[in-house]
Write a structure and sequence with these properties.
Keywords: Membrane, Transmembrane, Transmembrane helix. The chain is built from 12 helices and 2 strands; from the N terminus they run H-H-H-E-H-H-H-H-E-H-H-H-H-H. By secondary structure, the chain is mostly helical. Helix content is 67%, strand content 1%.
Length: 269
């Protein structure tokens, strides 16, 4: 019995450590985006808001509470991932020399591409009427999302999102630094996608850079629900015909708002 108690204590301590790191990553990533857009560049951001409607304090409170619930779930899956690694099933490596610099550098974009595909199909599946209410409805309570909604998931969705990590470390050799870089990019990109401000230049969607999603791309998903499912890239939405037809027009409307307001000000002056 004492052995079981010791095991539970060790597992609890490890869970708490992972939960603490994940929670700090959430607040650091989201906080950085919020600070830059709404403190440093507040006046500029106000002119480039995608929606006229504003999120309420209650919306933000709900988003943070459920995001903390998500980091708790992520920590459970993280605990499982640690055990997978300790059992010898994962391909995590510590020395770059094991796979070389070229592969280690290339593995970061590879894991982002893999995650984008995983996210698209899991996200789209959660919009099926049978799954939506239990898995994804809570996230869509944020009709006008803020960056704090980055992890605002129901427990079932949090599990599905977190499972990518134990799957990818079994399938793909990944250096620990690549894993940390991926996790940092994931939260920052998620916070950017929910920020409600179109900070990209107006010409963005007329260049090859249009392969990358923008805040408008994901904001339209929150407004209209059935479309624009991608996380990092627009590829899957375009291949599968799920990108909203008016996306580029809506993007340019938000991205040129600052220019329009400046023109009006100059004319008035």
């Amino acid at each position: 019995m004492a052995g079981l108690t010791d095991l539970l204590v060790r597992e609890g301590q490890l869970w708490l450590a992972i939960f603490t790191v994940d929670t700090l990553r959430y607040f650091a990533g989201v906080g950085a985006v919020v600070f830059v857009l709404f403190v440093v560049a507040r006046r500029w951001s106000e002119r480039r808001r995608i929606q006229a409607r504003r999120a309420t304090n209650g919306d933000v409170r709900r988003e943070i509470i459920w995001s903390l619930n998500t980091t708790a779930v992520y920590a459970l899956v993280g605990l499982f991932t640690v055990r997978v690694e300790q059992s010898g099933y994962s391909q995590i490596y510590l020395s770059v020399s094991e796979w070389g610099w070229w592969y280690t550098a290339l593995s970061l974009p590879l894991v982002l591409i893999a995650h984008d595909a995983y996210f698209y199909w899991v996200h789209r599946a959660m919009h099926h009427p049978v799954l939506f209410k239990r898995f994804h409805r809570l996230h869509h309570l944020s009709r006008t999302p803020t960056s704090w909604a980055a992890y605002s998931f129901a427990p079932g969705e949090a599990v599905l999102m977190a499972l990518f990590m134990p799957i990818i470390v079994v399938l793909l050799p990944l250096h620990v630094s690549v894993i940390f870089a991926f996790l940092a990019i994931m939260i920052v990109r998620n916070a950017m996608g929910h920020c409600g401000v179109e900070f990209h230049p107006h010409w963005w969607v007329d260049t090859p850079l249009d392969a990358l999603t923008t805040p408008t791309h994901h904001d339209l998903h929150h407004q209209k629900f059935n479309g624009n499912y991608g996380l990092y890239f627009t590829w899957w939405d375009r291949w599968m015909g799920t990108e909203f037809p008016g996306y580029k027009a809506d993007f340019k409307r938000a991205a040129t708002a600052e220019e329009s307001s400046q023109t009006v000000a100059e004319t008035s002056g």
